[in-house]
Amino acid sequence: MRFDDKYIDYKSKSKRELYENLILFKLLSKPKLVSIGKYILKICLFLKIPISVIIKNTIFKHFCGGENINESIKVIQTLSKNNIKTILDYSVEGQKNESGFQDVFNEILRNIEISKKSSEIPFCVFKLTGIARFELLEKLNNKLVLSDNESKELDSLKLKLNKICALAEKVNTPILIDAEESWIQDAIDDLTEKLMSKFNVKKVIVYNTIQLYRKGRLEYIKKIHRSAKNENFKLGLKLVRGAYIEKERMRAKKNGYNCPIHNNKDNCDVEFNNATQYCIENIKDISVCFGTHNLKSTKIAIELMKQNKIKNNDSRIYFSQLLGMCDTISYSLSKFNYNVAKYVPYGPVKSVLPYLIRRAEENSSIGNQTSEEIGRLKKAIKNY
Ligand SMILES: Cc1cc2nc3c(=O)[nH]c(=O)nc-3n(C[C@H](O)[C@H](O)[C@H](O)COP(=O)(O)OP(=O)(O)OC[C@H]3O[C@@H](n4cnc5c(N)ncnc54)[C@H](O)[C@@H]3O)c2cc1C
User: Fold this and answer.
1) DSSP 8-state assignment for residue 68
2) Closest residue to atom 8 of ligand 1, CA basis
3) CA distance 166 to 150
4) What pLDDT, in 10s, does the model give residues 274-305?
5) Which residues fall within 8 angstroms of residue 120, CB to CB, at 6 or more apart?
6) What residue segments make up the domains of the chain, in order of their start?
7) Which numbered atom of ligand 1 lies nearest the CA of 178?
8) Is 33 exposed, middle or buried, given 0-12, 13-18 or 19+ CB atoms closer than 10 A?
9) Nearest alpha carbon, ligand 1 atom 2
10) Is the alpha carbon torsion for 289, 202, 313, 117 positive or negative?
11) pTM for this structure?
């Protein structure tokens, strides 16, 4: 198969929208501007200057579906027209109190219910820190003794997780659990492994996320694969490189421990591609979702599928990219009948800001990809 820009559905946007995207990517291609923008944004928020409208009509419009599921329907339909599915991601982050956690929990359940009625939504997704206190997860991670209140909090979290997975099982929509900072990830892994052993017996309902920018994660995959075989359940895995590299490095330096992240990008790429190979070669036990924008890794995955005589649209293998990023990969994969789904973040503009800031920083740091995107948009405007 060929990956080609010509498969991207630019016609679903107006020429004006394409110009707006072009301006956005030109701004994002300037790292200094992005970091100044970040500070201006913080000052505006602090001074309560109403900038939501400006954000909603610029960066939000490009990277998010809408402020709620209804507003995201247009995006879902456009993707679906192109044989690309949607993973609705309620991207409200940094909840601090029980009512915030409850809101996110309710929204996850609502999302799963909606997926029941829609063949366009193959997975639901959530972050554990959306429904649980970071400090509780950190304490669990460090295997510290919990207070009575914390034990109750943990029980309530387990109940919520079981409710989410039971509903996902009932409506037959698998659920992806995102990976987060390494100092809470062991806790997330433990909770997720228990859910997989309970819900993944007949088919895969629960997917854990593995960050291959961390050292030793392929070994971890092999370890849980052995447990899954011994205990007769299947693994669901989303493979990603990892989104918290700066934070991980800074914390390791500050606290004087060895950074868990690979020493360089090449090692990270090797680990990702080896994990890809391991999952595909063990496809009878492992369902996998490749969450990547890396073309080389995507090509490796499809070549391995071919070598292992796996059909392009085998339901155990999905590819996923974020809305507004790497459309060439998504649209080309869908053209050749691979299963592909976009993460479509949504939520109130203010609550989605941390996600948008990560996207802005990521796009300003991947200079090559951003200038390719600018080139593509210029071509699309010219040929409109
Ligand atoms: C659908 C989807 C779901 C995702 N879910 C999660 C999630 O649950 N948790 C999460 O943490 N991230 C998640 N991500 C983000 C992901 O981890 C990456 O940040 C992002 O996709 C960029 O990596 P890439 O594979 O696309 O490729 P590339 O652009 O080739 O790789 C960039 C990545 O490589 C790694 N890297 C860069 N430089 C170095 C270096 N010097 N040493 C070691 N490693 C390096 C970093 O992880 C960096 O983000 C998700 C991404 C997608 C597309």
Assistant:
1) S
2) 178
3) 24
4) 999 999 999 999 999 999 999 999 999 999 99
5) 76, 77, 79, 80, 85, 86
6) 1-64+352-384, 65-346
7) 8
8) middle
9) 291
10) negative
11) 0.95
Residue count of the chain: 384
Pull the structure tokens for residue 187. Answer: 């806790």
Was domain 65-346 assigned CATH 3.40.50.920?
A: no
Contacts for 381 with CB less than 8 Å, ≥ 6 apart:
15, 18, 19, 22
Q: State the CB neighbour count (10 A cutoff) for residue 309.
A: 7
- Digit-coded pLDDT (tens) for 7-43: 999 998 999 999 999 999 998 888 888 888 888 888 8
Q: Which two tokens stand for residue 55?
A: 């954000």
For the chain, what is the mean pLDDT? 94
Cα 362 from Cα 28, distance rounded (Å) = 9
The alpha carbon of 147 and the centre of ligand 1 are apart by a number of angstroms equal to 36
CA of 188 to the centre of ligand 1 (A): 18
Cα separation, 142 vs 187, in Å, equals 8
Q: Which residue has the tokens 């193959």?
A: 122
Q: How far is the CA of 269 from the centre of ligand 1 (A)?
A: 10
